[in-house]
Amino acid sequence: MSTTTRDAGKGALLALFLVTMIDMIGFGIIIPFLTYLVQDLAAEQGVVQVGLWVGLLMTAYSSAQFISSPFWGSLSDRIGRRRVLMIGLVGNTVFFTAFGLSNTLLFALSMRFFAGIFNGNIAVARAYIGDVSTPKQLATRMGLIGAAFGLGFTIGPFIGGEFSSPAERWDLFVGTIFETYPYLLPCLIASILSAGSLVLAYFKLPESIDLERAREDEHLSWGRQMSMIASNSVSMLRTATIGAMIWVSMLFMLGFTVMHSVFILYTEMDPANGGLGFSEQDNGRMFAMIGLLGIFTQATLIGPLTRKFGTRRLIPLSIILTGIGLVMIPYTQTNLVWLQMLLVLSCIAIGNGVFQPSSSTYLTRLARDTDYDLGAVMGAQESLSAFARILGPLSGGLAWELTVNGSYPWDYHTPFHLCGLLMLISGLLTLRLPVMPELDEAE
């Protein structure tokens, strides 16, 4: 697929930034109120498996992204990045609001799943960046996408928490639909943000690829096209270059998301048992610290670091730094907790903030040097990353339940050791990545 030589304007980059940010807002917005929504609906329906439904709703979004990412990536190679991104924003606008209007658990699960389906287009945003960026611009612009990722994950839970049950806090909402559906307002805010991004994309986001070749493939049946998508994805994962990089990213994400399910379990644990005795406010400050450090790294540091060290060298270094931070979490001492957590979370946030744009940049260059379409490559990567976001929290929770009451080293340290092991495997796999001197020189 040939690309245009036209560079992306500021409006196009802003639209891509908002698409990515809204993706993570949609993921994180339900975290503060999900348990309460499930409890309310479960009580009305006589359902007793509250924990099961919370887990299903948490995984439905990432599961849908896992299924849909290769499809959206490959579809964008045929009909254009712009169209696919706008389809995703339309879906977000509809299904975010619909989730806030849920009156049964099954309806809530369905709306969450469909929101994830339409949010599987984050890979398309990365492919768009690859289309319109020169090698010198690529790392910095991927860092912009990464900063939007972190900002969305920070804003999403804030909106979800601050605007839930508004009728209980502001008289303005008493007797309105927002009293009947107490979780509608944060979902509606997310929909408004998505609709605003759709308008911006319509006016400011030009197409980034040449659609002539796409028109040549229109005669293929849908079944044949889907067969080709699956065949290309499997073929990519078996290659020594693209496949290796995708697996590196998947293992990194798996280790990173194992931490998501056990971090708060550890920090809230009684100090007498080895925990930190944190409150919900303390944990909120911790996640805010991770988000802000990540945003700072991807928005300001990634460009200079890439120019100094090169993308290929930054990938294993960022994996090692992140792994050290994850392993050191349960060794924090209560008498120096804030200083030690600052150092530990800095390793995690900076490591992750460097890895995400570096891996996307390197994968883009690999795709350009092969016969694979960039959208399909990014779709395969995002699909496996979504799978990691499904498997990681479940694995971490299981490891915690099996070991938390044991003795060292098979105790509450074990899930964090598992994070380090996955990072080690990911780092070792980078040895299979080819050195590309021309990449470093260009950057």
Explain this structure:
Helix content is 76%, strand content 0%. It is mainly α and 443 residues long. It has two domains: 7-210, Growth Hormone, Chain: A; 226-443, Growth Hormone, Chain: A. Helix 3 runs antiparallel to helix 4 (81-100), helix 3 (50-79) packs parallel to helix 6 (122-132) and helix 6 (122-132) runs antiparallel to helix 7 (135-162). The longest helix is centred in the C-terminal third of the chain and has 32 residues, at 337-368. The chain is globular, with a radius of gyration of 22 Å. The relative contact order is 0.15. Residues 1-5 and 438-443 have low confidence and may be disordered.
Helix segment tally: 18
- Look at the structure and name the CATH superfamily of the largest domain: MFS general substrate transporter like domains
**Which value, in Å, is the CA radius of gyration?**
22 Å
What class, by secondary structure content?
Answer: mainly alpha
CATH overall fold name of the largest domain: Growth Hormone, Chain: A
Number of domains: 2
Q: Determine the mean pLDDT.
A: 79
Provide the low-confidence segments as ranges: 1-5, 438-443
DSSP summary, beta strand count: 0
The CATH architecture name of the largest domain reads Up-down Bundle
Under CATH at level 1, the class of the largest domain stands as Mainly Alpha
- How widely separated are the two ends? 23 Å
Descriptive keywords:
443 residues; mainly alpha; Growth Hormone, Chain: A; 2 domains; 76% helix
Write the layout of secondary structure elements.
Blueprint: H1 10-28, H2 34-45, H3 50-79, H4 81-100, H5 105-118, H6 122-132, H7 135-162, H8 177-180, H9 184-204, H10 212-216, H11 222-237, H12 242-267, H13 280-309, H14 311-328, H15 337-368, H16 374-403, H17 414-429, H18 437-442
Helix pairs in contact: 1-4, 1-6, 1-7, 1-9, 2-3, 3-4, 3-5, 3-6, 3-16, 4-5, 4-6, 4-9, 6-7, 6-16, 7-9, 7-13, 7-15, 12-14, 12-15, 12-16, 12-17, 13-14, 13-15, 14-15, 14-17, 16-17
